[in-house]
Design goal:
279 residues, alpha/beta, Rossmann fold, 38% helix, disordered N terminus
Length: 279
C-alpha cells in the first residue's frame, strides 16, 4: 500500500468551520457515506451557530475536498476514525475545551468506533444521527440493494459504490422521501460521490464493528421514521447499546441534515448539547 494511503496528515483534510458569535460549545460534525463536509453547510451548521454552538466539519479522507493522494477503495473505517481523532485533538488544542462529536449514518459508526478505542481524545458527548447500528450493515445491505438491484450487482462486480448514487431516482430512494422537493434531491445528486468498497464490505461482514460499552459522556441517538436505510428498530438497538434513549423524528428521510424539516433535528441536537454543557 502506498504510504500516502496509510496516513493522512490533518492539514490535508478539508475542514469547514462555522463559529458561533458567542460560543458555548463546539461540535465536530462527521458526514456519512457518499457525502462530505458540504452536507452540513446548507443551513444545519449555521443554525447551530445561532444557538451558540460552533461546528467543525471535516471531509473524511477520500471525500469532498480531502481526495488528493487518496485511493478511496483502500480506506477502512479505522482510517475514518483516525481522521476524527485528529480533528478532535486539534479542536481541543485550539479551543482548550473538549468538543461534542456528532456523526450521521456511516459517520455515526465512525463516532462509535471512536468511543470504542481504549483511550480516545476527550470529548464532551457523542451524538449518532440516523446511524449505522453497532451490528454493522448486516441486514441493512438488502434494503440498500432493493432500490437499484442492477446497480448494486454492478457495484459489487466493479467495486464501485458510486453506481448506487448516480441518478436522482437513486438518491431520492436512499436519502430522501417521495415528497422531498426535486431541487434538494438534484443538488444532493450533484454532490454525492463513490464510497470505499473496502470499508463497506468489512463493515457488512462485521469485521470493523464498534464495541459498545458504558461511557461517562452523554450520548444522543436519533432516527427518522421515513429513513429508507435504518429502521426504528435499528435506531433503538443503537441507543440501547450505548445506554441512551432513542429520539425519533417523523416526516424525515435518511439525510436528516438536508431533507425538509432538518431544522427540527438541528434544534434537537442543539438542545441536547446545551443541556449537556450545563448552565
Amino acid at each position: 500500500m502506498n504510504a500516502a494511503d496509510e496516513t493522512r496528515p490533518l492539514t490535508a483534510l478539508e475542514i469547514i468551520r462555522i463559529d458561533a458569535p458567542d460560543p458555548r460549545a463546539t461540535v465536530v460534525l462527521v458526514h456519512g457515506a457518499w457525502h462530505g463536509a458540504w452536507c452540513w453547510q446548507d443551513g444545519f451548521a449555521q443554525r447551530l451557530a445561532t444557538r451558540g454552538i460552533s461546528t467543525v466539519a471535516p471531509s473524511l479522507r477520500g471525500h469532498g475536498g480531502s481526495t488528493d493522494g487518496v485511493r478511496l477503495n483502500r480506506m477502512r473505517m479505522r482510517d475514518y476514525v483516525d481522521d476524527v481523532s485528529e480533528v478532535v485533538t486539534r479542536t481541543i488544542a485550539e479551543s482548550g475545551a473538549a468538543p461534542f462529536v456528532a456523526g450521521h449514518s456511516m459517520g455515526g459508526a465512525v463516532v462509535q468506533g471512536f468511543l470504542s478505542r481504549p483511550h480516545p481524545p476527550r470529548i464532551a458527548g457523542a451524538a449518532m444521527l440516523a446511524s449505522i447500528p453497532p451490528r454493522g450493515l448486516r441486514g441493512v445491505t438488502p434494503r440498500i440493494a432493493k432500490y437499484s438491484p442492477g446497480a448494486f450487482a454492478l457495484s459489487n462486480l466493479t467495486l464501485d459504490l458510486g453506481r448506487l448514487v448516480r441518478t436522482t431516482e437513486q438518491v431520492r430512494a436512499l436519502f430522501f422521501r417521495p415528497s422531498t422537493p426535486d431541487c434538494i434531491v438534484e443538488a444532493t445528486t450533484a454532490r454525492v460521490q463513490p464510497e470505499s468498497f473496502r470499508a463497506f464490505v468489512l463493515n457488512m461482514l462485521g469485521l470493523e464493528r464498534p464495541k459498545p460499552h458504558s461511557t461517562d459522556v452523554p450520548v444522543w441517538v436519533m432516527g427518522a421514521t421515513d429513513d429508507a436505510i435504518f429502521t426504528p428498530a435499528m435506531v433503538a438497538a443503537t441507543a440501547e447499546a450505548w445506554g441512551a434513549t432513542p429520539v425519533m423524528f417523523d416526516e424525515l428521510g435518511h439525510d436528516v441534515m438536508l431533507d425538509v424539516g432538518w431544522e427540527r433535528v438541528a434544534d434537537g441536537l442543539a438542545d441536547w448539547v446545551l443541556q449537556s454543557t450545563g448552565p
